[in-house]
Amino acid sequence: MKQLIKVTQFTKEEEVPSLHSPFYYAILFEGEATFTLDFHTYTCSGKNILFLSPYQILKWNTLHIEEMYYLQFHGDFYCIEYHKEEVACNGILFNAPFEIPFVVLQDKVYDELVQYCSKISLLDQAETSYDISLVKTYLQLILALSSKEKQISNASQKVKMTAIGEVANFKELLEEYIVHYKSVSFYADKYNLSTDVFSKKVKKYFGKTPTQLIQERLVLEAKKQLHLTHKSIKEVASELGFSDEFYFSRYFKKEVGVSPKVFREQVGISIVAKKSME
Predict the structure, then answer these.
(1) The domain boundary residue, chosen from 111, 140, 156
(2) Cα 48 to chain center, whole Å?
């Protein structure tokens, strides 16, 4: 297994790599950027922190930075699901298809996050062994502060146009029905809207089409089953409504970039699954 946690600092745009790996990432930076994450393009400026889950595909399109920190960690080092009581970041920072993947930071918060990243980096570079619990504490502080900022940001954006606000609970509907219903028309019927009108409202409200959100939520559910349970790939495919595991594997690889087998091998089976077997 590769190093389970690491911080890499960049000051030159040409040194910053694209990503597609089995690690979680928190990317802290000051500057301007346009990037593509899982085929969706975003633009941000100022001081931001960007979050990636394992095997998301990140490509930088334009990048002008003062500084940038790549904080990567493996689920074996820190399981965000297992520690959800301490840090509520799963579904807010990571694995959140309905959310913008970055958080705009206040100067004070940004400076504090830079300090924690620097401390992790210094401990990692020390020749002597260091206290793992201390590194985990710094990581928890980074995630907790970012989650708080994200939730503050979300609260300030709650005021939406009434005309499109009616689809605001589409996320909850997907959570309830995604395993059995994957057509846009099914969800449009729930709102008594035509597919076309429903699609336009969802795109305006969430920034993505219903088809994109359904696909992302389905892939997220597949990732959760592969990471958080001991179910076989065949069982996961069946539970998600795929006709056979081979079709599921092709679909998963097309969307994620690796097969379910490779995803499970590289990301691992969570301590949550292991605890459930005890």
Answers:
(1) 156
(2) 15
Q: How many residues does the chain have?
A: 278
Lay out the sheet containing 58-73: strands in order across: 5-10, 58-73, 24-37, 40-52, 102-104
- The rounded distance, in Å, linking the Cα atoms of 251 and 246 is 9
Q: Do the beta carbons of residue 20 and residue 42 sit within 8 Å?
A: no
Say if residue 13 is in the same domain as residue 148: yes
Residues 192 and 214 reside in one and the same domain: yes
DSSP string, 190-209: HTT--HHHHHHHHHHHHSS-
- Residue 93's CATH number: 2.60.120.280
Q: Helix, strand or coil for residue 24? A: strand
Sequence letter at residue 270: S
Residues 166 and 90 in one domain: no
Q: What is the pLDDT of residue 230?
A: 94
pLDDT in tens, 58-92: 999 999 999 999 999 999 999 999 998 889 899 99
Domain that holds residue 122: 5-156
How many domains is the chain partitioned into structurally?
Answer: 2
What string of H, E and C letters represents the secondary structure of 110-179? HHHHHHHHHHHHHHHHCCCCCCHHHHHHHHHHHHHHHHHHHHHHHHHCCCCCHHHHCCCCHHHHHHHHCC
d(CA 27, CA 73): 12
